[in-house]
Amino acid sequence: MQCDPLTRAQILSEALPYIQQYQGRVVVIKYGGAAMVHQERRAEVLRDIVFLSCVGIRPVLVHGGGPEINSWLQKLDIPFKFVDGLRVTDGATMEVVEMVLVGKVNKQIVQLISLAGGSAVGLCGRDGNLIKARSQGRAEIGFVGEVSSINPNLIQTLLEGGQIPVISSVAADETGQAYNINADTVAGELAASLGAEKLILLTDTPGILRDPQDRSSLVTLVDIETARRLIQTGVVKGGMIPKVQCCIRALAQGVRAAHILDGGSPHSLLLEILTDAGVGTKLVPSQYSAQVGEAGNGSR
Ligand SMILES: Nc1ncnc2c1ncn2[C@@H]1O[C@H](COP(=O)(O)OP(=O)(O)O)[C@@H](O)[C@H]1O
Ligand SMILES: CC(=O)N[C@@H](CCC(=O)OP(=O)(O)O)C(=O)O
Hints:
By secondary structure, this protein is α/β, with parallel strands linked by helices. It has one domain: Acetylglutamate kinase-like (Carbamate kinase, 3-Layer(aba) Sandwich), CATH 3.40.1160. 42% of the residues lie in helices and 20% in strands. The chain is built from eleven helices and 14 strands. The protein has helices at 5-22, 33-36, 39-54, 66-75, 91-115, 153-160, 183-193, 224-232, 240-252, 268-274, 287-291, and strands at residues 26-31, 58-63, 82-83, 86-87, 120-123, 131-135, 145-150, 164-167, 170-172, 178-180, 198-203, 221-223, 257-262, 281-284. Strands 5-8-2-1-11-13-14-12 form an eight-stranded mixed β-sheet, with helices on both faces. Strands 3-4 form a two-stranded antiparallel ribbon. It has a two-stranded antiparallel sheet with strand order 6-7. The longest helix has 25 residues, at 91-115. It starts with a helix and ends in a 9-residue tail after the last helix. The relative contact order is 0.15. The model has no long low-confidence stretch (mean pLDDT 93). The structure holds adenosine-5'-diphosphate and ligand 2. Ligand 2 binds next to helix 2, helix 4 and strand 4. It is found in: Cytoplasm. This is Acetylglutamate kinase. Its EC number is 2.7.2.8. The record marks 30, 243 as: Transition state stabilizer.
């Protein structure tokens, strides 16, 4: 980290109890396309994930790639549009989504992890029957799927072998038909099925903002009830809605905390997990759970 030695020593002494608490625990991290567009930060984010793995925390990475899919659809002259934050996915679009996410973005991330000194295995839902999909049943959005089941055994085996699983949000149904699933949704369901300690969504805003135009209006701590209210009252809009919804679902299924933070800000992942104050929005099941069970001074 680029900081003076005193600050570094403070961070290290603060981080140690968190590292001890989370050792052996699974942390599911979703690296969104909006954050990944900061090419210069990608290697740094992935180095931080390798660091977590080196100290004994078990990161599982789910990646997005919406902007990269858009750019390839444009190159191929295939028009695209979104309904409720979900890409309308016909047969031709599905083919491009799978090629870009599974063939390109996934392998780039695996390579960057390897260059950072870690070892990663790239998978999509089809591999090892990891995720089975089903249609959302909305004709107007085509092959957009939802998770029908998850088989976490392969992920557990990889984690036990010190590998970092890197997962694309493409999965097939019982007939082999591919579906395009929102990557936040996949991350939330995986976190629940792996009994993860944390679900972390890296995006392009500091977290949930009271005013999306004002980056200083960060909501630092929120429980499920308040998170629902932020959606109902329209504070949380657009692409932030599926994020908050999947955090709520993961918390309701036993994940202890969910975090939304800016993946483009230096070392945001480590600062969020390993310091008392954190840098993003932390979502917890209830206000009570915010005060118990965390290492450090419990300031958040
Ligand atoms: N209350 C809010 N706080 C923060 N961001 C918000 C809020 N409401 C809507 N947003 C929007 O949500 C976007 C993040 O969603 P999205 O673009 O889908 O990201 P990703 O590619 O990481 O999945 C932000 O860039 C912001 O424009
Ligand atoms: C159904 C749906 O919308 N799928 C997404 C999958 C990728 C994704 O979620 O990427 P981000 O995290 O970068 O948004 C898409 O096609 O863009």
